[in-house]
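TEACHING EXERCISE
Course module: macromolecular assemblies
Task: Read the component lines below, then compare them to the predicted structure of the full complex.
Student: A.B.
Group: 4
Components provided:
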Amino acid sequence: MIPDGELLRSRVLTALAPALSDVLNRRLDGYALLSSRSSLLGTDDESGVITFEAGVPVLAYHSGTDRGGPAALDDIGPPPYRFELYALDADALELPHRTDDLRVPPGAVAERLTDEPSLADRTRGLAGEVLDDRSEDTVEAFLEDEAAIDDIRQSAREEALDRADEWGFADAIED
Amino acid sequence: MVEAFAVASGKGGTGKTTSTVALGMALADRYDVTVVDADTGMANLLFHAGLADVETTLHDVLVKNGAPVEAATYDRFGMSVVPCGTSLSAFEAVDSGRLRDVVADLAADTDVLLLDSPATLNSKSAVLPIVLADRVVVVLNPTVPAISDGLKVQEYALSYGSDIAGTIFNRARGDIDDVAAKADRYFEGPALATVPESDAVQAARSAGEPLLAHAPDCPAAAAFRTAAGRLSPNEGDAADVAERFRTAVIPDPP
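Instructor-supplied answer key:
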């Protein structure tokens, strides 16, 4: 269901929080494979997968139990496990990310699989900024915040004018 | 020549190329339409128009001593289509400043020019189609990032002297009338249409056909026809418009 990405790193982890924090800081689009403890011992090949959009976890699935969403996080459980991180273009993830059954709330991975509630909070905060939150309430609340929208527009105008010289568009600017 | 439109959105995945091709097909009933893949870095118009296997693309036109644009122009689905190739090395050889001359050449021979623009504002080649166009169609999804990036596209366009033709809310799931009405307060130009999310869009792309050819009777296709009907291209003089493009701002070579 998810195309192969570019392997960024593969290592055995005893704590997941630093890896999740790194993914968040990089705003990574991609996915991680988390191989269970028994597979580290070579007794099975079950693994969990968590996808990321702009560093925020979006989907979770566990191949051993065939469960998705928050239930898959229970199946993945706490470390240690082998953590393989892959980069993948967001467009390639767009179709799998429409699978609502597998979605996890943005903070759920940090909440359930790490001891760092602050990471869960930080993830939720960034999710509000970057994720395609399709909840109508969220979008309407955004549109009702006139000051924030004016700020976006004003910043974009300033950015466009600043770049006009740099890009040779200065002649196009209307007085 | 009537008018040049850039079809733009600040982020990927909004269905910008689907919208460009759908508007083109709908307008082709009344006008001579040319659709150009101005997203030279991440081309995908060719996949939407059954042109995945063609040999000559806009990339071959935009290089030094390149092919004439006629060699990269294909008649498909009642439109003239100028696709871009997908090779990264070909993209790196491209002089995006030449796009201005290509647009001028094409403008002389067509009524409506639609420029499928890059889904980013982070380089001058990405912003160039917005600068060259008379008006910009902003493609939105009913999400915070898509609306926020659509606002940025609008402000760039207005800053560079291009008008806003209107907005299309694409990939709408269920009733988004409240969202569309609230967003409309911030966007120039009319709300052109709300296009429902549709499996037919993906099926059309897999088939290498425009949505309006693959599933002309689906609600999404009908919404795009409504949007096209509201665009009301301005009557203009062909020679004037071509000349305007030729004398438009000239970005420095990359």
